[in-house]
Design goal:
Blueprint: E1 7-12, H1 33-40, E2 46-51, E3 72-75, E4 78-81, E5 107-111, H2 134-141, E6 145-151, H3 156-166, E7 170-179, H4 186-197, E8 200-202, H5 204-212
Parallel strand pairs: 1-2, 1-6, 2-5, 6-7, 7-8
Antiparallel strand pairs: 3-4
Helix pairs in contact: 3-4
Length: about 210
């Protein structure tokens, strides 16, 4: 049975470079694809986000001489983690995982396409000011509740859920349909941030089971 018309599934960055074999591979990142497909089939409204970086993007360690991936620099807008080159525009790594099968997706939102600012969140770039336009799109569609899945739990899913909640959407993260980068402390701090912001953590499998019964 489809969800109500005011709910949407937000699938975060399920792209080749974030899955095993990719340049910024997240352990078992591809393992969530079948679950995400099953879950998406129960939603009328589905939005996908796509990391879409230009060459020499500010988030690439290779852009900064002497820096290496997973270090942090001070960007004009604040701390910026550095990553291996990933999800570069028009490369195979930027494509969605080939197993992702959500033909009724209504919107593909590209983020991180500005050279000098990163964008973890689906709602705001990393200056926490510049909007992506997603909030306006959802409001015009009458969407009030968001279920979030995808990659990575402790970065782009995290910031999307926190920003969504701050913008007035009810945000629920389905943990078993996410995977984390899991840098030291990032999962614990994500869980704490969700608790403080009122972002609920739930199970995709349990939701599917309850809908089927």
């Amino acid at each position: 049975m489809p969800h109500t018309d005011t709910e949407a599934l937000l699938v975060i960055d399920l792209q080749v470079d974030f899955c095993p074999g990719g340049s910024l591979a997240i352990q078992e990142g591809d393992a969530i694809v079948p679950l995400v497909n099953r879950l998406a089939a129960t939603f009328e409204h589905v939005v996908l986000t796509q990391d879409w970086h230009p060459a020499h993007h500010i988030s690439f360690a290779s852009t900064h001489p002497g820096q290496v991936p997973y270090q942090t620099i001070q960007a004009p807008y604040g701390p910026q983690s550095l990553w291996p080159d990933h999800c570069q525009q028009h490369t195979p790594g930027a494509a969605f995982h080939p197993g992702l099968d959500i033909p009724h997706t209504e919107l593909i939102l590209r983020k991180g396409f500005r050279q000098n600012i990163d964008s973890y969140s689906a709602f705001l770039e990393n200056d926490h000011t510049t909007p992506t336009g997603l909030a306006g799109y959802l409001r015009e569609r009458g969407i009030t509740r968001l279920y979030l899945v995808g990659l990575a739990y402790d970065f782009c899913v995290r910031f999307s859920a926190l920003d969504g909640a701050a913008l007035g959407f009810e945000c629920i993260v389905l943990e078993d349909a996410c995977r984390p980068v899991a840098l030291p402390g990032t999962v614990d701090s994500t869980n704490q941030a969700f608790a403080e912001a009122g972002v609920r953590r739930a199970s995709a499998v349990e939701r599917l089971t309850s809908k089927a019964s």
